[in-house]
Amino acid sequence: MFLHLGGEFVVNIKDIIAILDMESTLKSKDSKEFLKVCEEEGFIEEISQEEPRSFVLVERLEDKSTYSKGTHKIIVYKSPISALTLQKRAGFIDTLSLT
User: Fold this and answer.
1) What tens digit of pLDDT does each residue of 36-70 get?
2) Residues 6+ positions from 21 with CB-CB distance below 8 Å
3) Residue 98, in any domain of the structure
């Protein structure tokens, strides 16, 4: 199953490591430093011109061939869609428990 992150971007749900709220995450010094390092290393993908409301950590298998296991790459997608909405769409949160 796939999750639409905004714009024309979709990711496989099984590749998602975390879906985090941008505003609350940026209150942490460690999270700010993590995102700074990700930006410097080129791991962040802007998927929309809109203000990001969440970011999604995804692990993708790269260079998969018949003779090797491949390498894993972490990508951080900044999404204009709220973390709660993405988590609901992905089935990570049961909408009945929120009422």
Assistant:
1) 999 999 999 989 899 999 999 999 877 666 555 66
2) 53, 54, 82, 83, 84
3) no
Q: Which of 21, 85, 86, 79 is nearest to 51 (CA)?
A: 79
At 78 the pLDDT is 95
pTM over cut 0.85: no
Helices (H), the chain: 22-25, 29-41, 83-90
Q: Which domain holds residue 14?
A: 2-93
d(CA 70, CA 31): 28
What gap in Å lies between CA 72 and CA 19, rounded to an integer? Answer: 19
pLDDT of 18 > 90? The answer is: yes
